[in-house]
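Module 6 notes. Inverse folding takes a fixed backbone as the condition and produces residue identities as the prediction. Think of it as a translation problem where the source language is geometry and the target language is the twenty amino acids. Below is one complete input and output pair. Work through it position by position during the lab.
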């Protein structure tokens, strides 16, 4: 299983009046983590979009464990939890600098054609990308 890591400096604008990171910012960090994972594997989401495909989120689950605050650094760990013919589920851990878990999450995505939003298999769009996801996914068939 391949795990990608991306460090995020927590900005003041990402916090609420209590000085705690606003919950929706974790979703942005997850996107940053997915992008880093894809790039680590030698692919680009921008290239996928340029080819006429999108990968919308179809399900999202996040569990908040320990608050993060302005001035801290977060590490986003991202991996392929599962990948099948039509769905890819990414797994995430967002960690404090000392390794304490701030949040865990998963996001499920389906690849669709931009023009009609009909699902399409990554195998048909990019066989090498599909093969890599199958190789590194945590949950095997």
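Target side of the pair, the amino acids:
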């Amino acid at each position: 299983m391949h795990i990608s890591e991306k460090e995020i400096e927590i900005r003041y604008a990402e916090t609420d009046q209590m000085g705690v990171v606003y919950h929706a910012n974790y979703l942005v960090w997850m996107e940053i983590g997915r992008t880093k994972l894809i790039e680590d594997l030698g692919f680009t989401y921008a290239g996928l979009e340029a080819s006429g495909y999108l990968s919308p989120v179809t399900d999202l689950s996040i569990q908040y464990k320990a608050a993060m605050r302005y001035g801290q650094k977060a590490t986003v760990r991202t991996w392929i939890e599962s990948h099948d013919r039509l769905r890819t589920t990414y797994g995430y851990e967002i960690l404090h600098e000392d390794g304490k878990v701030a949040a865990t999450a998963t996001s499920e995505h389906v690849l669709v054609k931009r023009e009609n939003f009909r699902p399409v298999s990554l195998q048909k769009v990019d066989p090498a990308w599909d093969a890599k996801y199958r190789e590194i996914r945590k949950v095997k068939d």
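Reference fact for the lab report: Residues 25-40 form the longest helix (16 residues).
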